[in-house]
Amino acid sequence: METKKIIKYIKGIASGEEAIEVQRWINASQENAQKFNLLKAEHIASTFDETSRSANANKSYNNYRARIDKSSRNQKRTLWSKTLKYAAMVAVILSAAYLYNKGGFKANEVPIPKDAIVLELDNGAIKIINEASSAKFVDAKGNTIGTQKGSKLEYNNNSPESEKLVYNTLRVPYGKRFDIVLSDNTLVTLNAGTSLKYPVKFIKGQKREVFINGEALFNVAKDEAHPFVVNAKDINVRVLGTVFNVSSYPEDLNAKTVLVEGSVSLYQEENYQPDKAVLLKPGQMASLNKSEQSMSVKEVDVSLYTAWTNGTISFKHEPFKNIIKQLERHYDVVIHCNNKELNQTFYTASFNNVSLEYILQTFKNIYDIKYTIEKPTNKKIITINQ
């Protein structure tokens, strides 16, 4: 983990995505947690400004000094190490008082659980979504812009018009899925390990554009006057009203778009140019090779690419190394496969709402693989040796 990123988190200026990354790093081991606490203490001490102490901080400091001086007069021997310890404590207390009065502590410093679904508002504020309850979200003027109930967040189409686009970002961790209904009634189902940046309310006369990192199934509300564009970094998907799946995880070699119904246009340029766009028909998948920037289109069984929305893991003639990625995202685990031959072996299977142990045992019984499961931290680590 980069020290710069940790310091940004400590200062409260890290983005939601960075904050989650740092939290996962902290929770990974006791050593990481100790390093974080040390960096935080050093940062607090370094930001302490002697001339900017508050009156309360001065009082706290003088009280500590008085105690130390009195103790020194009453004791014949000097406990040097203990004095240093108290001095360090005083510095931290004074620094904390200074930063608090200056507003140096931000909401982003509140620990974010690694398995939390996170909503980042346009002002950078972080909201933890509790799937076991419900909540309302309001804008700066107190207007309700959206409501959340269980694993679904729905934005209000009747919220006041805005002169400029205001964006929220929703982040779903590994091991979970989540539904969001945008202000135009477009339904988006986010897969594990996915983030979606979107306007709180679309503006009339402008295209409807969202930004995705990961995988999602879009059921776009039809509006011929306002095209809907999904920006997946390497590829843009333009539609008027249709159902399609987009998968564009950063670590994947290909960005894939599968059309369920309707029609879509795919393009790589910043602005849409019809003569350069690739048109898809229902039942087709476009696959963009990120490194070569080349695109191919073929007929597919769309159910294989949308089954995840129902908790089903499906793969057809997929190499084991690709299957591992699906399992890691779906179950929020880490899988190491030390068998190179196994990684290149192709498999076809479908598992509907079963445990990871069930899948591993199935591979063990049929293909005779050997594996171990450890949990040194909050995340399971599976090692496959054969």
Automatic annotation (TrEMBL):
The chain crosses the membrane at residues 83-100. Keywords: Membrane, Transmembrane, Transmembrane helix. Residues 169-264 form the FecR protein domain. InterPro entries: FecR, FecR_C, Ferrdict_sens_TM. The keyword Signal does not apply. Signal peptide: none annotated. Residues 313-375 form the Protein FecR C-terminal domain. Pfam families: FecR, FecR_C. GO terms for molecular function: sigma factor antagonist activity. It comes from the Bacteria. PANTHER family: PERIPLASMIC SIGNAL SENSOR AND SIGMA FACTOR ACTIVATOR FECR-RELATED, PROTEIN FECR. This is Iron dicitrate transport regulator FecR.
